[in-house]
Amino acid sequence: MSVRPYSMAPCEILELLEAGYQKLADSDSKSLLKKHLTKPIFDKLKTKVTPSYCSTLLDCIQSGLCNLDSNVGIYAPDPEAYQTFAEIFDPIINDYHKGFGKGAKHPASCFGYGADFPDLDPEQKFILSTRVRCGRSIQDFPFNPCLSEDDYRKLECMITNVLSTLCNEHAGKYYPLVGMEKDVQQKLIDKHYLFKEGDRFLQAANASRFWPTGRGIFINRARTFLVWVNEEDHIRIISMERGGDLGRVYERMIIGLESLAHSLKFSSDSRLGNLTFCPTNLGTTIRASVHIKLPHLGKDRAKLEEMAKKHNLQVRGTSGEHTEAKDGVYDISNSRRMGLTEYQAVGEMHKGISALIEAECKECCKK
């Protein structure tokens, strides 16, 4: 592992922090970073570094300092950052996850059974596709900003060796980004299978170093089970298919995750649950989403988002965060990932999407 040999943030880092903090303080940013990074907290944390990887406060907040339009504005460069910089992470986690305070403890995993969640749209009038994903980090490795080029290769080798053992429905092939032809890569991106380089929020957080070394995608034969390697987290496990059968999609993800967990040790914390690069994905790390047509509710985006918020749902554009809705198709997912089990998170999403479909039908009947 590559580490930086200092016990406190050096002068050049402090100068960048001071200038960046002043810029943030003077801005009209609505980010959670701006909201919670008070001057006393900033002054207390600015010289600290994490014990094993020497990550600084700048490593945590540089994306939010560069992108004042961030919603959150902070990432964890390594697993220890959540402890070393707890005085800024904790209030942001509490705010984003709607009530996960210092005394809160994430519950033990409980996946339940996918069969408990019936098809949300059996007639396929509204839901184009359903996806359930989770993130995992490999124990004893830092996150993107602290990974060396060799670390990326080691992680890729560890992960792909295990992926090659998957069988039955989950069996497939790994495609490394290194050497992948541009037209093949673009086709996979266009079909929403593959991640792409260029996200300015991740780049500002130093999450795109040594690209494309160590990155790639595993795809099963039916193209319903994917694993992203070394994108935002070490692993992103994704189950997806056309239509609204959330239960079947969720069950496929559970089986894939449990198969990988037999051979790979994941980073976790007794209080925060599964540890990830972004604090919005801590805890269960579960994001269950649908691409859904809501032509009537979608005419008033603010109203749609308000209704979704009541059910702890998040509304995004067709291609995800920071994108627009194309042809009235929204990406809607659960927003809570901490303080509840995986089963509860998916159940909350199932109930919320059902409510939105019911509301859309009522709006349609008014016309």
TrEMBL record:
Any GO MF annotation of the entry: ATP binding
Alphabetized, the UniProt keywords read: ATP-binding, Kinase, Nucleotide-binding, Transferase
Q: According to the lineage, what is the superkingdom?
A: Eukaryota
Name the EC number(s): 2.7.3.3
- Return the GO cellular component terms, semicolon-separated: extracellular space
Which family would the database say this protein is a member of?
Belongs to the ATP:guanido phosphotransferase family.
Q: Specify the protein name.
A: arginine kinase
Origin organism is Drosophila navojoa (Fruit fly)
Q: What is the lineage of its organism?
A: Eukaryota, Metazoa, Ecdysozoa, Arthropoda, Hexapoda
